[in-house]
């Protein structure tokens, strides 16, 4: 089985305090026919030099340095350099169990699956388990592509490429979209159009570490991550795709659109909730236009509907109240 090489791509940026743990967990894999590609994305804290030192320890590690361009551009460089028949991704903050790629490779090669997914958990910086984002299956499950898309729209499926082993040939015509923060979702949907489905393993062998200084989590009162704009734009793209290719999922796609806009409205800074912000105006316009969908959609919870209706009627007032409630919980 180990005649098939796996290329594991790690995009790296200013990860001095966590990179070594990440790389050590990859080097410890029981599946040994690996190449580990570290792509230093213009780090400024000495991480680039650490990448070179790690490469000296293990002949399977290869380091590439580039100007800062974001995780997608780093991953795309790694794909170009990869020589394996399968590709995996690990974020430099995270770490994996020693048998992750052994288990995924066994399923991929024995059943000829183009994509296999391991389950994951999330932990804080001290190692404490956080609530599961995606509930793992009780046993190995093959999920056909259309069902997986449906579960993505219902926020039940894992869109991360870090939990997946992917046949390299699938990247022949596809790359991660650069300059975006919701890049995994868009590319995964493209690939799902070309494969029968994804095999999902129950073991939570991939460990996501939620760093307090993460790009998508660190916020002051007026800061705002681009990710909340990207998720709305992706929702619009998904609505178009669903209506063209999966019309039976129309209501699910509408629910996804409303939910993503709810997420935007709960995170956009109060200072940007004004008439000068064209994106904010468009989100408000969408919510007002889809009040009937909010009321009637069977896939929205009562809580979702309540927040959506309140944010449609009095967004700034609701955000202030929401902010007070969240501060009291801390």
What does it look like?
This protein has twelve helices and ten strands. By secondary structure, the chain is α/β, with parallel strands linked by helices. Strands 1, 2, 3, 4, 5, 6, 7, 8, 9 and 10 form a ten-stranded mixed β-sheet that branches. Helix 2 links the parallel strand 2 and strand 3. The longest helix is centred in the last third of the chain and has 19 residues, at 227-245. It starts with 5 loop residues before the first strand and ends with a helix. The model is unreliable at 215-219 (pLDDT under 50).
Summary tags:
single chain, 330 residues, alpha/beta, ten-stranded mixed β-sheet, 12 helices, 10 strands, globular
Please render the helix and strand layout as text.
Blueprint: E1 6-12, H1 19-27, E2 34-41, H2 47-57, E3 61-66, H3 71-81, E4 86-89, E5 95-96, H4 100-111, E6 115-124, E7 129-130, E8 141-144, H5 145-153, E9 164-167, H6 183-192, E10 197-210, H7 227-245, H8 250-267, H9 278-289, H10 291-296, H11 302-313, H12 315-329
Parallel strand pairs: 1-2, 1-4, 2-3, 6-10
Antiparallel strand pairs: 4-9, 5-10, 6-7, 6-9, 8-10
Helix pairs in contact: 7-8, 8-11, 11-12
